[in-house]
Task: inverse folding
């Protein structure tokens, strides 16, 4: 059972040094005990056994003080800033078959507070994605094999890349994968886009079909510290098989996640599930805030857009703090994952309270703002001045 | 008059054995007496005559304990489950002319609690259906005669089938017909899709133009116990004419419905009307919960999507119960029809209370969640633990 080895640590010394977040955070402790009981059953574990297990796994998985992190990295709103400074995100995805996923990802970034959100998709997908919202900037630049002749592929590929390159350096983060599909020609072009993003040091969040691409060509992200992979159960399984040449082992979940991250050169991995586990190959952080029991498609897309924006904000925060920090960890990709995860869970929880079984992804997106406000109030310029 | 033979039975022994649902369910009995009086007029029937009629038709039509059935088969929400486990539905329909119907059907399944809802439609219809909602996965794979040259038909037909086959085994149920149109080439392709669904043992709910197809080619569903037909007045009339070679006879409505179902090898038929009558060739169950007097187009599409999802849930429920049941009947297609019917009626009733003459299908869809919550509260994980 997962509980045997992946129990949240009691010690949160490495997570927070501020007075408002005591070393032994009682609320977190209570939640951890609840989780332990929920996972293992009260009768299964004597207190002695539980203490032993906690001793065993201490420091393997740290329950992130996610709300504190989210609050710290979310920039204050300042009327002196201009358009773009709060974040410019681009989603690479959207093909003839899938149009909802890139929309969910891009609009989520906007609803959390990004200034601009772009989508690079196929020509077929563009009018549909545009129709979901006038807020998005949608570029119909990608092409799928069925619309391209063999002899034109090279020139079209060059053209696609030139179109994306025009924008690349303006982006704070790229999300690759939502609704990308698996067309071979499209995949080739997107591989090139990822290489250019890496060269330009633009962070990349990889989800959905982007993970299919990356699993088959690990070089696209390996050794790139600004890459984040956000696999679900099946995607994680395929990654483990490919990189570690073994099956997923929940008895050694923390160690395996660390090995997987190390195996891809220290990229950050957010393993989605009942609890989210995040690692960059050094430690494992968990976010276990309760979300929702609904598993409607599209929730992963909200997360990818959220992680992309928070990651950008974390980089801004770390760069402005200049070493004077009151949060740990200090890897912006890990901070982005933690903040994205807790926000997504809070919004899903509020949406579910309201809509119950009827909850859909669009309902969750509608609660992103309220959830963020609960954790990091906007306090307008007028209020604070 | 229908009342002469199709009166709801007083005996519900076969429907429920739980204490909370007594053998002589008083609420149902009151409703039945009300219906009898409403149909026949108080003055027409002496108590003696009424008793005689009840004696005559006893056990022919059983008023389903629909809410109990809906509650039993609706799965509890469990955070340990992952995407897809609460249901994956596909609608085959949507052409140049009709785009609303497949949307209504597919979105209804999602709003009741399915995890994923697909639509397979023509290339023209796809962008429009996609634009109604980013939650649906819309495949632009079907083609109509006007866009296909005679010599290409065979290869295109094979391609369409290959596209659908890629997904077939992932689906818990197929809905065939909403907004399908009657283009001959399209009908040929859809016939092949139905054959493949049958081979793969994927349940099929047939409505709208799908019923036109099936009425002309009964082999597509005959002897397939996982097929459900949901005819309205006219579609039922054509089915009776084709299968029983006679006209609809409301004096013998229950017997005729049973004969019709038997005549198609025991497929389940949901005869829509003021009351819904459901039979798989053995008994007839009725759902007479009051819905709405509005007859705006599209309500049948909500029903087909709902039946598809409830049918899938009923199969999961029956398989998990392993014979240890407290509901009858035990045919999942009949259970799905009963639950779909009562939910649709409840939602229509709430929508009408709110919107009156202005009630449209989208308004009814908005009440699916609340109606389901009334009958089968979601009780989040936190509540139950």
Result:
């Amino acid at each position: 059972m997962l509980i045997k080895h992946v129990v949240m640590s009691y010690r949160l010394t490495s997570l927070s040094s501020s007075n408002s977040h005591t070393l032994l955070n009682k609320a977190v402790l209570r939640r951890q005990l609840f989780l332990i009981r929920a996972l293992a059953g009260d009768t299964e574990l004597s207190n002695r056994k539980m203490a032993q297990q906690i001793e065993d796994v201490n420091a393997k998985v740290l329950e992130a003080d996610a709300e504190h992190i989210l609050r710290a990295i979310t920039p204050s709103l300042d009327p002196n800033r201009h358009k773009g400074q709060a974040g410019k995100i681009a989603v690479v995805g959207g093909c003839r078959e899938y149009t909802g996923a890139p929309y969910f990802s891009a609009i989520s970034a906007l609803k959390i507070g990004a200034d601009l959100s772009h989508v690079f998709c196929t020509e077929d997908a563009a009018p549909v994605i545009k129709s979901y919202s006038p807020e998005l900037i949608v570029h119909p630049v990608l092409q799928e094999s069925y619309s391209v002749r063999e002899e034109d592929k090279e020139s079209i590929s060059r053209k696609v890349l030139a179109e994306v390159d025009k924008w690349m350096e303006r982006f704070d983060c790229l999300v690759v994968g939502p609704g990308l599909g698996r067309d071979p020609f499209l995949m080739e072009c997107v591989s090139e886009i990822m290489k250019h993003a890496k060269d330009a040091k633009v962070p990349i969040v990889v989800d959905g079909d982007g993970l299919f691409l990356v699993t088959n060509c690990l070089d696209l992200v390996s050794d790139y510290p600004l890459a984040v992979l956000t696999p679900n159960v099946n995607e994680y399984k395929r990654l483990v098989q490919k990189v570690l040449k073994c099956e997923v082992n929940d008895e050694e979940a923390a160690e395996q996640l660390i090995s997987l991250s190390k195996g891809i050169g220290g990229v950050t991995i957010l393993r989605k599930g009942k609890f989210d586990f995040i690692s960059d190959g050094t430690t494992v952080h968990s976010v276990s805030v309760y979300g929702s029991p609904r598993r409607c498609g599209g929730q992963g897309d909200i997360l990818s857009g959220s992680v992309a924006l928070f990651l950008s904000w974390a980089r801004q925060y770390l760069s402005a703090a200049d070493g004077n920090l009151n949060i740990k960890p200090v890897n912006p990709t890990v901070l982005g994952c933690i903040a994205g995860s807790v926000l997504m869970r809070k919004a899903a929880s509020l949406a579910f309270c309201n809509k119950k079984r009827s909850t859909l992804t669009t309902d969750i997106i509608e609660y992103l703002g309220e959830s963020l406000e609960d954790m990091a109030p906007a306090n307008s310029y007028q209020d604070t001045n």
In short: Chain B has one domain: 63-375. Chain B is about 50% helix and 10% strand. The beta strands of chain B are 61-63, 88-92, 116-122, 137-142, 173-176, 204-206, 227-229, 268-271, 276-279, 284-287. Chain B touches chain A through 42 residues (CB under 8 Å).
